[in-house]
Amino acid sequence: MSRDLIRAWIEENAPASLRGTASTPFQGYWGGNSEFMSADQRLWFERCLERGWTAPKWPVEYGGGGMSVEEHRTWTEELQRLRMPLPLVGIGLTMIGPILLEAGSEAQKAEHLPPIIRGELRWCQGYSEPEAGSDLASLVCSTRFEGDEIIVNGQKIWTSHAEVSDWIFCLVRTDTSTKHGGISFLLIDMTSPGITTRTIELISGASPFCEVFLDDVRVPASNLVGEVNKGWGVAKALLRHERGMVGESIAAGGARLPVLQRWTLRDAAIERIGLVDGRLADPLLRDRIAQAEMDQECMRLTVKRANDKLKAGDNPGAETSILKIAGTELNQRRWDIGMAIAGPDGLGWEGDDYTDIDRGLARQWLRSRGNSIEGGTNEIQRNIVARHVLGLPKQ
Ligand SMILES: Cc1cc2nc3c(=O)[nH]c(=O)nc-3n(C[C@H](O)[C@H](O)[C@H](O)COP(=O)(O)OP(=O)(O)OC[C@H]3O[C@@H](n4cnc5c(N)ncnc54)[C@H](O)[C@@H]3O)c2cc1C
Questions:
Q1: 160 CA closest ligand 1 atom index
Q2: Is 158 in the pocket of ligand 1 (CB under 6 A)?
């Protein structure tokens, strides 16, 4: 499909009220029991769904759009051109779906991919445990087999959006005699008896985090993705998708100032600080913004190059760790600049007394601190780059 066709379709179908509103690829409808933010968001979702373009790259047989990597890149670029939000977002689409396509059984693909595409289900990720974060393979969530069921007991932590999710993909221990070789990858229905969630408040005030407790939860053994005790390979492949996605999302937008989603750093600085002789009045800030914008463009081009590798049939490799480090640190830097532009007004927490530039800024700035922790900390990514990209010795 040519760029002209994709562009024409978007021009014809993208509701005017959504144009110019996207600041990150995390904006869009989240599926499951999430609410549509507006009638136009629903309309946009439904129009895309008709073409399979809520999951543009996924095979047509499951309801996806069957786009090639090149077509998908064009689709993304054309959406970005109009700053249109994606019709559907969430880790069903970006993490578990791609893994099921790679490693799931035919039955698992047929059961789970169509409802993800139709936005009917929301997924969460049950990897981290209280004593297993960076050293994820030390996880202890226990299992025992009973007939064709697996009984799961344990606790997960930092599970984003668990309280509103329909399904969770979990790493569980199926063999205690070996570390990495005793882990399995299991899909669990969040409505199963024995699952409870408890929210944890974040420094930014919002509470998308949960603890998840699994108490004698019975799961069909057919929900294992890949073979029993082979879950570590599946888990790592999924993390590469996650890290690539984080980096890619930064490349697509980076920090815009909040609420109205329309203030770029440049525009906000001009509005707040003003121009002298056509240039931003604060030269130090001007320098920081110019550097961040150049780095943003470099990031965008690097992601584009990485996507070209995918076009050649590769799966995301350890290089996604580079994108994750660069993307998250750039994003944090951009929010730091946002705070510098706002000055003391940026510290506003809630209330109606703030301008569009300042409202919610502190919360998003604080949220960006988590970018270098989620999906595996940046220290761990540096270890991966050192060993698996640069081939450096362990010590
Ligand atoms: C916003 C956010 C969302 C998240 N969402 C999810 C989710 O949905 N599902 C999920 O399962 N998890 C989620 N997490 C958890 C995240 O994956 C873990 O926090 C992360 O892997 C780090 O684990 P930890 O918090 O136990 O820190 P620790 O592993 O205890 O690390 C503490 C510090 O020590 C450093 N460190 C540890 N080991 C090494 C080493 N070998 N070399 C160098 N430095 C090291 C780390 O870099 C870090 O700075 C989320 C986290 C955040 C912040």
A1: 8
A2: yes
| CATH classification (class only), 234-389 | mainly alpha
Residue 135 CA to ligand 1 centre (angstroms): 9
pLDDT 10s digits, 109-147? 999 999 999 999 999 999 999 999 999 999 999 999 999
Looking at residue 73, what is its pLDDT?
A: 84
Tokens of 347: 């510290």
CATH architecture of the domain formed by 3-117: Orthogonal Bundle (1.10)
Q: Which of 135, 132, 221 is nearest to 174 (CA)?
A: 221
CA distance 294 to 289: 9
Amino acid occupying residue 311: K
CATH topology of domain 123-229: Butyryl-CoA Dehydrogenase, subunit A; domain 2 (2.40.110)
Tens digit of pLDDT for each residue in 41-66?
999 999 999 999 999 999 999 999 99
- Per-residue DSSP letter, 88: B
| Residue ranges of domains in the chain | 3-117, 123-229, 234-389
